[in-house]
Amino acid sequence: MSQFRALAGVLKGGGRQWLRGPGGPAARRWFDPRRGCSSEAAVPAAVASSSSYVEEMYFAWLEDHKNVHESWDAFFRKAQASGPSAEVDERRPSTLLQGRALSQTTDMAQKVVEDHLAVHTLIRAYQIRGHHVAQLDPLGILEADLDSFVPSDLITSIDKLSFYELDESDLDKTFQLPSTTFIGGGETTLPLREIIRRLEASYCGHIGVEFMFINNVDQCQWIRQKFETPGIMQFTNAEKKTLLARLVRSTRFEDFLARKWSSEKRFGLEGCEVLIPALKMIIDMSSAAGIESVIMGMPHRGRLNVLANVIRKELDQIFCQFDPKLEAADEGSGDVKYHLGMYHERINRVTDKNITLSLMANPSHLEAVDPVVQGKTKAEQFYRGDTQGKKVMSILLHGDAAFAGQGVVYETFHLSELPSYTTHGTIHVVVNNQIGFTTDPRVARSSPYPTDVARVVNAPIFHVNADDPEAVMYVCRVAAEWRNTFNKDVVIDLVCYRRFGHNEMDEPMFTHPLMYKQIRRQEHVLKKYSDKLIAEGVVTLQEFEEEVAKYDKICEEAYTSSKDGKILHIRHWLDSPWPNFFTAEGEPKSMSCPPTGMDEELLQHIGEIASSVPVEDFRIHPGVTRILRGRADLVKKRQMDWALGEYMAFGSLLKDGIHVRLSGQDVERGTFSHRHHVLHDQEVDKRVCVPMNHLWANQAPYTVCNSSLSEYGVLGFELGFAMASPNALILWEAQFGDFHNTAQCIIDQFISPGQAKWVRNNGIILLLPHGMEGMGPEHSSARPERFLQMSKDDPDLFPEFRGDFEVQQLYDCNWIVVNCSTPANYCHVLRRQILLPFRKPLIIFTPKSLLRHPDARSSFDDLAPGTKFKRLIADEGPAGTHPDQVKRVIFCTGKVYYELAKERKQQNLENDIAIVRLEQISPFPFDLVKAEVDKYTNAELIWCQEEHKNMGYYDYVRPRFLTVVANEKPIWYVGRDPAAAPATGNKSTHINELKRFMDTAFNLSAFEGRNF
């Protein structure tokens, strides 16, 4: 197809023009502008060799030499001069087009066409593969694409011309340029020698451009124009001075840290000092385009420099972090200095506009912060009404090994175009060290570049030599313009090196002696660039030295200030402040929680909308009609199942102006077809109705969105979304509870310790379907033992009951773990999450079979005004009314309660055995458990769970029960035996296990004679 278009350029101006025809690749139409008609012809090669075609071209030339391209004009003049009669009148072709002359004419015509096609193919080869020979490595010893092979279709020497059946004599011939290149500037023809020179300048210098895989012509043309236009990569003297000043700050900051703390890990930026001016260029360009907030995520390398010179954190606060004697003024563990985040509003001095910069705190798990940044960016765009990403944007920094090796990068990229997750373009900057920790890239990745993962979303990739500051600045300028123009992701591959090892305490010569011998000889980029500008007369040596001295003085003064009675405040490093939510000291404004009940009128209204289709002429599936009819019947009876309980919670919060966002795999319908928050018209494609958004005229918006089949990326995204505002209910639901396994990094590194490490409150809710129901090991357990093991309350310390004990306990914990057994309690705990004066992550083990269990119902009375979440549900039957007669108290949680209650009734033991439900497992309700234990003074205590003994809740609750009874009484275990797998895959075995532990639970002599 490219050859067909190229031939059109050759014939431009006269003769028959190339048009698309209906006959497919082998048939096209030629249009004769002189005759105004078209005809079918074969493929171009056959057409070009056709004597009738050449004759027609010749007739057109005879009428007017300007009818044909200048190359054809020259050809016919030469052919005429060499014909049988050179003196023949040029208006009489008969003598020319005979015998040998006609054959010669045809051969020459075909050669002209083939040469033009070859040149056009050559141009395309540079556009596609020029980056493979670009001079990207500052050290000059490695190939950025891991391959020293030079593509055979790139003209790196004269003998390579033979690939296109051209030779040295063709270098000075003039060729028509295709419309898919801008190397001509304002010219339409160029000699071949100049074409090659300009292509090498555009694609084979210190910038390598990967973009020809993009399937959008306009975007490709945009990129070509940015890199092919002659002289486009120019900077003014003022811009060069600014670049030099920024490079001075970046370099001298690292030098200062190295002088003052030579034996401290700091993960410095040496070898990629150009990163600082690069980021500032991106921010400057984005600010000029209207961006008001930039949210950034990055690994540890260079973080302190970014904090100091991009975010503009006070230097004395950074230097404080190096004082080993400094004690923290805040509670919590804190984190090492190169993991900390920051939030800062300031004036951009280039644009004179306000801009907010936020660098997210990040653990050493490198790319884990990627989806978190995207979620927070999406949230800020949402709350600002920024539907196109014109006010808020994200920048993600990566290391080369992590970018290529960690799957969350791929997961994050795949969120970039999804309607409910897109942030309308992220600028990715890969600090390409050309090495992992000690691992050579040739054994660390299979792709040519570390950035190849970005190709899956058609993101252009700009490789650039980090030792050419102006090339880096130009690439950053283009990247910012791309993001502002197309609102799509873009990648900058900053090919650099680490002047020291993985950290300053490392010895890289152990594993990479040749690389580090070269690095030791490598001149610093600041020296190179300052010498260049001095030679150009842009700055003088004195001006440069003054700039260096000026920044050194700033660092010294900050260092002195950092020693003057500074206190380490982790709150100064908060990356997501919530104005007006806490007091000035960062404390809750109160330590109480109001009741979470609601008026009957409110419940009825929500129930009516939940059981209807609030859009006219909307045809839903008959099965959904039955579900809605069932809901309506429940509402009439003033009852609710699990789905209605959730509806009540969401709907009531929406009325109060609280945004609710539910995200995850298949959450719109619900994995178990119980929710149906999005109704689909059965007759009109893509026509949907979300009844929750039709509750009130001025309600807050409800967002429910099916996610990609990702847990790590999507949970990280929702965590970031929840960081943006405390006045939102953000929920992530796993398709099955154990699916959180693949998001464990987000849970372990962000959700569980986030407040302790970074003073970061977060109200994210995890909904994890859980229950042993004979469906095999994979979709049974949500692994509650993992969450409980990471709960920080002390099992051996009976807490002091002070103030509002329930709220105080929640404030002291790192997260809340519940397993609700009733729809009403589920509704209460969701509402409590917002009504609390602080935010904690909430882990809810949700049911599967209980979604439709006839006994798992709640009355509207359970949600009446004044009611609230029940951390523990006592036995309300005969056993509860005669506690002194009870012989055994079974404590349990979740679904197993209904199986226990059924078995107790069948065995007629309702007077002898009490069943108590722990709805909130962590923090452990010491006060309520103690009240129940004291109530049943003559009863033995049992903990019953359906999970295996080495899983579930037992290891968590046992020591706490013993603390409650002061180790004077045992708490016996009833449940499945220890096992390696969460559940059996055999239905019969599952039933036998259930029967066995039910028999034990109700055998009143089962534990007689056992030692405690």
Account of the protein in words:
- One of its GO terms (biological process) is tricarboxylic acid cycle.
- Residues 640-853 form the Transketolase-like pyrimidine-binding domain.
- The protein folds into four domains: 1-202, no CATH class; 237-573, Rossmann fold (3-Layer(aba) Sandwich); 600-770 and 819-863, Rossmann fold, CATH 3.40.50.12470; 875-1001, Rossmann fold (3-Layer(aba) Sandwich).
- The strands form seven sheets. The chain has an eight-stranded mixed sheet, with helices on both faces. A seven-stranded mixed sheet has the order 18-15-19-20-22-21-27, sandwiched between helices. It has a five-stranded mixed sheet with strand order 24-26-25-28-29, with helices on both faces.
- Helix content is 37%, strand content 14%.
- It is an alpha/beta fold and 1012 residues long.
- The protein contains 32 helices and 29 strands.
- Helix 31 (954-964) links the parallel strand 28 (940-948) and strand 29.
- The longest helix has 31 residues, at 99-129.
